[in-house]
């Protein structure tokens, strides 16, 4: 089968198209003929950093290193303990996150517990896109944010991969949604369903919003968390995707009775089924900025690394 193998940690020139054996499946796994891989910022991070590679993939000696966790394709074989899926089923999901997902390949061995059936109204590209990023948005808002109808929710980077799913999921729950982006992406953020838009270049979001029930912060600067804390109301919830809270920030949050959590997304088939249901009923759409061919995976990494993508980047396999 064709796969993109990482020759060594470094630039995108180290992503090489190779012919390698189809993986064997374990008893709890299905073999998926993969048609699309979602590309995420963590993919480029892992490619470029030895520490990140070892932390996320833990590759074994002599094993081909294949990045990627988001897959969408057809089941071609099932392990003997698999109950939910049969050959011919179209499935999608984020597989073996913080492990070797090996998504940049024509065939992927995937645990059945991490997959959902792909809705018929959703393409393989849109389904692969709606894996890690949509799962992160779901777990941030639902699992940790405890979102409910009428909540005021501030979503940073609302035009990005995670952000655009978060806006749609929050609207699905009946929240009032405020999304931040540059002015150029205002129309898109409102199109995703946000009730209000804040241009982070011309407005200080913490001066516009001071009473959010939930804030989703995916930005890298530590002082951004302090500003987000100012935007949450007493008793609200602040979920960080990137920065870990300092002791000082935890104390400040405690003084406001604000729940804080730095999320690490986890593979979860039940959450994928919730995402599949939203896709099926038309409450969730993948905005796809670019679809690249498998041999162009390096270009897909370069696009994601700009930090300016509108929606998602996908590789077609
Ligand atoms: N902890 C976890 O489990 C987890 C899971 C998923 C992702 N993440 C992290 O979360 C972050 C977001 O991921 P992603 O996939 O959504 O990234 P992404 O798709 O690359 O985000 C791109 C978006 O960020 C926006 N943006 C850039 N600077 C901004 C600012 N100062 N304020 C508001 N928006 C800004 C851009 O809008 P403009 O072009 O308008 O600036 C662009 O649309 C990444 O750092 C990723 O590694 C963490």
Automatic annotation (TrEMBL):
It comes from the Bacteria. Residues 10-315 form the Enoyl reductase (ER) domain. Keywords: Oxidoreductase. Pfam families: ADH_N (PF08240), ADH_zinc_N_2 (PF13602). GO terms for molecular function: oxidoreductase activity; zinc ion binding. PANTHER family: ALCOHOL DEHYDROGENASE RELATED, RETICULON-4-INTERACTING PROTEIN 1, MITOCHONDRIAL. This is NADPH:quinone reductase.
């Amino acid at each position: 089968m064709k796969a993109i193998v990482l020759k060594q940690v470094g630039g995108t020139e180290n992503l090489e198209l190779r012919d390698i054996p189809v993986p064997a499946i374990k008893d709890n796994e299905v073999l998926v003929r993969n048609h699309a891989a979602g590309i995420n910022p963590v993919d480029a991070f892992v490619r470029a950093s030895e520490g990140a590679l070892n932390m996320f993939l833990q590759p074994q000696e002599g094993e081909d290193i294949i990045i990627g966790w988001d897959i969408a394709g057809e089941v071609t074989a099932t392990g003997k303990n698999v109950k939910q899926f049969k050959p011919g089923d179209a499935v999608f999901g984020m597989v073996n996150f913080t492990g070797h997902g090996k998504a940049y390949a024509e065939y992927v061995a995937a645990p059945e517990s991490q997959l959902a059936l792909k809705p018929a109204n959703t393409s393989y590209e849109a389904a692969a896109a709606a894996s890690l990023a949509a799962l992160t948005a779901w777990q941030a808002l639902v699992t940790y944010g405890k979102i409910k109808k009428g909540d005021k929710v501030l979503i940073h980077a609302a035009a990005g991969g995670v952000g655009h799913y978060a806006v749609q999921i929050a609207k699905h729950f009946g929240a009032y949604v405020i999304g931040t982006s540059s002015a150029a992406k205002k129309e898109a953020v409102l199109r995703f369903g946000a009730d209000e838009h804040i241009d982070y270049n011309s407005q200080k979001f913490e001066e516009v919003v001071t009473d959010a029930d939930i804030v989703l912060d995916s930005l890298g600067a530590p002082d951004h968390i302090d500003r987000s804390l100012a935007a949450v109301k007493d008793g609200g919830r602040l979920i960080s995707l990137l920065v870990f809270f300092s002791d000082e920030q935890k104390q400040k949050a405690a003084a406001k009775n604000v729940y804080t959590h730095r999320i690490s997304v986890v593979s979860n088939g039940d959450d994928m089924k919730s995402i599949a249901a939203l896709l099926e009923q038309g409450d969730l759409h993948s905005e796809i900025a670019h679809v690249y061919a498998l041999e162009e995976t390096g270009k897909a990494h370069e696009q994601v690394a700009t930090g300016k993508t509108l929606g998602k980047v996908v590789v077609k396999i």
